[in-house]
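Hey, I was hoping to borrow your eyes for a little while. I've dropped the whole record in just underneath, so have a look:

——
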Amino acid sequence: MVGISLPFAGRWLARNSPARRVPSHGVDLFGERYAIDFVGVDDRHRSAGTRDWRTLLATEPPERFVGFGRPVLAPDDGTVVHVHDAEPDHEARRSQLALVPYALGQAGRLRRGAGAVAGNHVVVHLPVSGTFLLLAHLQQSSVRVVPGQEVVAGQEVARWGNSGNSTQPHVHLQVMDRADPFVTRGVPMSFRHFREWPPRTRQSQVRERGMPGEGAVVEPLPATGP
């Protein structure tokens, strides 16, 4: 089990958590077995402050969403081994009507390769565990690191976007045994020191280490020690 910090500040909603099921995303492909997604939310735990006819019938600009453009933080110390920053941020989709053509394009995205699936992304080698960490769906032209660069936990490496296989701005994070997501296997992970609001409750709990539950809202807390 690889222990890391949450890669953001503020509150985020956990989706596709391996605390709910494994494989978390329904497949073992691309090292996603233990991956998790986080959707940025406000203090009322809303992912977007606006709902209108586009929410029900069409696509929406990614700027509507709380998480879009928020800083991406390195979850641990390591070395950047791969960067991709050439994919556009596309429109978001909460509408079931808008999701239909998007789903039909899934096979085409897979054929186009890692960039079309992970969008803009960064891979970091974690020397203590010998594993690799993938941060995906980054905002176009926001990546601030280059291959070979050393990063420390909490350092800003990019901004969250809506690139690649993403229906709305969110964080996709996974730990892998190899740097190449097309030949890698997922590795279990846990997060250090965070506050968690379980679904359908206003009561929070502090967790020193663990994996957020499906539908929980989390925020990182300052480290209390080694």
Notes: The chain has a mean pLDDT of 90.
